[in-house]
Structures are given as structure tokens and as C-alpha cells.
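Person: I keep going back and forth on a fold encoding question. Show me how you would write down a chain together with its backbone fold. Please set it down just below, with no commentary around it:
Helper:
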Amino acid sequence: MQIHLACDHCDQLIFIDVLKPNQVASCPNCQCKLHIGKKNSEQKVVALSLCAIIMLLSALFYPFISFSEQGITQTITLLDAGKILFAYNSPFLGVLIDVSIIFLPLTLLVFFVLIHIGLLKILPRKYSIKLLKLIFKLIPWVMSEIFLIGILISMVKIMSIADIGFGLSFYAFSAFIIFYLMCLTQIDKKKLWRHISHSDNSPIICSPSRAIDNNLRACHICHLLTSHTQCSRCHSNTFFRTPSSIQKVIALLVTSLMLYLPANFYPIMHTWVLNQDEPATILGGIMTLWKMGSYPIAIIIFIASIIIPLAKIFVLSLLCYVVSYKNDIDYTAQHQYTKVYQVTEFIGKWSMLDVFVVAVLVALVQLGALMSITPGKGAIFFAGMVVTSMLAAHAFDPRLLWDKENQLSNNNQRDIE
């Protein structure tokens, strides 16, 4: 059985035969990876999901990290980070931490098990569609692996002034992340959508071309090819291109830039030593690490907190400019812009690293008048900046890079009509 689809990045029509395990199908036009052959994927997803659930639940009920200074010991669990942020009037950060590293992945893992043991066949079709839509929209917002890196960086920051100990929960949480990431590699989205409906509009095309050239729309949810304004499989509205993509991206980038400025101006955290406040901005914290000799950590945080956010805003702005004002883009440039967009979309959430470092330090370093750390306003602005920049990346339609000016305007008009 052939799989008929259009490349998400360049709109090239592709017909893929059944793939052998680990065989990869790539777009012949832009070389983007389209599909990977999997064997016994349902069983593997269920097994890995159950292992991840067990590890995550185990991580919630045992000591996570301990911090000792001058005979005073502070021990925290995985849930304490969010609780302490709530206590310091940072509910946004508290919710972000709890949802993105615990509740969201746990919910997704339960859904992974259910949909791979036959839930989609039991549920009424409309609820199965809603469930798959929800799952695939939530997956990009899980940030447990970034939180783990943030923990390790936090430990480097404070191990020179105190004794650090890792509890059983830390190792369980690390195992959970490994199982979760392995589980994601086994999920076959196209196969799950075929459980909903086997409809597969497979138009006969004499020569390879793009979907838009054949009056076909690729559903942005389930990727079914259709010539209608509504997808017959998931009932989503279909468009030749994402409506108002450039306008949405620009609006979100402006918002992101407006949040980025106060994020660097205000302290991201406050360190209290003997009741004396020592505020630290993002750049100030990086300089402190550099002076301490923690050069690799300083470089990692500098890249994640300074370079990546600015680079992401610059790249997305450049892509919007290219789509809006450059009429003829050669193939090499189209290919390069597409690759740059893929990298930008992938690394976007890693800017959250500094926020997680602050969350861990706030939860761990609470020794009363001797020493304590509290979150600053900068952390809230920075988290908001990361979220809006991620939304901007998701809003950009990379297929616009491959469209000709007259082709794009004609099909935009038809979308409006």
C-alpha cells in the first residue's frame, strides 16, 4: 500500500511504498525526512510508555535533590519546584514547571498507551479525532529533558558553596526521560490517523509536482490530501497555505522582542545571603559563572539565553522578509532557508533552560536567613518570550518559501473565496 502525501516543508507530492523497518523516506525536492519504517511500533510504544509512567510516578514520591550548607540541609521532591514558585507569587512559572515537566508528559503517556491498545476503535469517531488532535498539539510543549539539563547546570552553579546529593527520584526522572524520548521515536502518526479513516485521496498525477499545482490541499492536522475546503478524515478546514501566516509570525515576534528587553533588564533571580539581596540578571549570571571558571556552563547558558532567542527572532524575521519581498528565490536558497527554519523550530524551546535553572535554585536554596534564592521579574518575562517565539515558529508556513508570487496570490484568493 502506498502512502500519498505532500511534503510539509515544500509541498512536493510524494508517493511512498511500504517501508522496511528503519528505512527512511525523504522528500526528493527539499530532502526533509518524511517517514520512517517501523516494526511492531504499537507494542514498543505501549511498553516504553508504561516504563516511562512507572519512572515518572516513582520520581514524585522520593527525595529528588538535597542541599547542605553549614549543617543546614534542604531536601526537595520533584513537585516542590512548582509549589515554592507559587509561594513566591510566581504562579505563571509554577504552572509552567508543573505542566511542562510532570502533568503534560504523564497525560500524554497515558494517552499513548490507550490509543495503541485500541481506544481509537472503541471511541466514537468524532472523539477519536479530537483526541489525536490534542495529543499532537501537546507533544512539542513537553520540556522534561530541558529541565534535566537545567538541574545539572544548577548543580554546577552551587556545588562550590555547598554539598549536593541526588536522591532516588533524580535517577528515576532521568530514566523517565530516556523512555519518553524513545517512545516518541516509535509513534507513527500517519498510521494512527489511518485508524480513524482509511480514506486516502490518491489523485493520478502523470509527473511529480507540488500539491498546490494540482489544486490539492494538505490537511495541516492529519496531512490527508484533498481538493475540498474541509478534510474528510479529521474535519479540519483546509487551506493551500496557512491563513495570515506572515502576519501572525510578525505579531508574535514583536511581542517576543518586547518581552525580551525587560527579561534582560530585570533580575532573573535574587540571592539573599544574611538578609542581603544580590540580584542577578541573565547576563550577570553568565559573567559570574565565567569568573568562577565554569566556562562550559557559561557558554551553554549564553547560547541558550542570549544567542538562540535573538537568532530565532532574526531568522523568522528574515524568512518573513524573503517570503514577502523576494519574488524569485533559487533552489539553493530555498533549500537553505528550509533547513534554517527546521533548526530554528527544533531549538526554540531550549531557551527555557535559564528559567528551569532559576526554578531549581529557588526550590533548592531555601536556608532561611543564611541563604535563599527567590525568582525575579526577569524570569517571568523570559518565559513569556520563549513561549511567544515558539508560537511564532509554529505559525510560519515554510511552504511559502517554495511558492512563486503569482501562484501564491492566486491560491490565497481562492482560499478567501
In short: Residues 157 and 409 are 54 Å apart (CA to CA). The mean pLDDT is 83. The chain is about 55% helix and 10% strand. The first strand starts at residue 3 and ends at 6.
